[in-house]
Amino acid sequence: SGDFAGGELAATAMFDLGDAQEWSLQVQIADAGLSRFMAPDGPPDTETSESNPAGGESESADGRVFASANLAGSLEEVDRVGNGRLRIYEGELYQLPFTVGIYQLLQLSTPFIKSPEFVDVVWHLDDDDIVLEVIRLQSLDGDAVTFSLNGEGTFDWATKTISAILRPRSSWIVLADVFGALQDRFYAVSVEGPVKDPQVELISFPDLQ
Predict the structure, then answer these.
(1) How far is CA 87 from CA 34, 122, 134, 159, in A?
(2) Whether the predicted pLDDT of 171 surpasses 90
(3) Mean pLDDT in residue range 126-137
(4) Is 82 exposed, middle or buried (0-12, 13-18, 19+ CB in 10 A)?
(5) What pLDDT digit, counting tens, does each position of 26-65 carry?
(6) Can you tell me the distance from the alpha carbon of 119 to that of 117, in angstroms, rounded to the nearest whole number?
């Protein structure tokens, strides 16, 4: 355990010296700074700025990060499995191409929404395939969720590319599934390409595609 990116890191590992040569690794990072999490080798007070699409002021991409990973495998069979979670909260995500692209696209159809401030990703690993079981992006007003995109996808670790489909959800919890099902018929958001600069597109009438 120790400090990492302004937060706390805890890790445990096991290696079996038997015939199977099985291993396991558990890592958890709590309350780390997003900018330092993304560039842990950079100076701790280095910030990059970019135009904030919500207000036109210079903002850095930052927030707090919680991340966990549980991995296991065998050296004999060269296979591995695992699962984990990544959460970004208290986010100022104006600089991230992923969220900037989604925000700019949705501004065309829903001009009142703010840039996403909360990201939640649940994933599992099967050999080289990283499946993004849950992807959730939320715009917030205080503690209230004003807009949400939920979806799933895949991530290719070798090429650092993402392929995902996100669907809108209402901010009203009781009506979220009802309105969401209706919105699903009209549009979805496609995210494809390098995770640092993906192509974000609006899919009209996705059920007909």
Answers:
(1) 10, 9, 11, 22
(2) no
(3) 87
(4) middle
(5) 999 999 998 888 776 655 544 444 444 444 443 456 789 9
(6) 7
Q: Which two tokens stand for residue 165?
A: 């489909």
Closest CA to 153 of 135, 138, 129: 135
Q: Which residue has the tokens 């591995």?
A: 80
Query: What is the token pair recorded at 127?
Result: 């050999």
Residue 19 phi, psi (nearest 5)? -60, -40
CA-CA distances (angstroms) from residue 120 to 24, 123, 137, 153, 208? 24, 10, 7, 13, 28
The pLDDT of residue 48 is 42
Q: Do residues 79 and 127 lie in contact, with contact meaning Cβ atoms separated by under 8 Å?
A: yes
Residue 112 CB: number of other CB atoms within 10 A?
8
Instruction: Please calculate the CA angle 35-62-154 and round it to the nearest 5 degrees.
Output: 75
In terms of DSSP H, where are the helices of the chain? 34-38, 97-107, 176-186
The answer to whether the CB of 65 falls within 8 A of the CB of 86 is yes
pLDDT band at residue 145 under the 50/70/90 scheme: confident
Structure tokens at 196: 């640092």
CA-CA-CA-CA dihedral for 169, 173, 176, 177, to nearest 10? 120
- Give yes or no for a contact between 22 and 72, defined as CB atoms under 8 angstroms apart: yes
d(CA 92, CA 105): 18
Helices (H), 16-77: 34-38
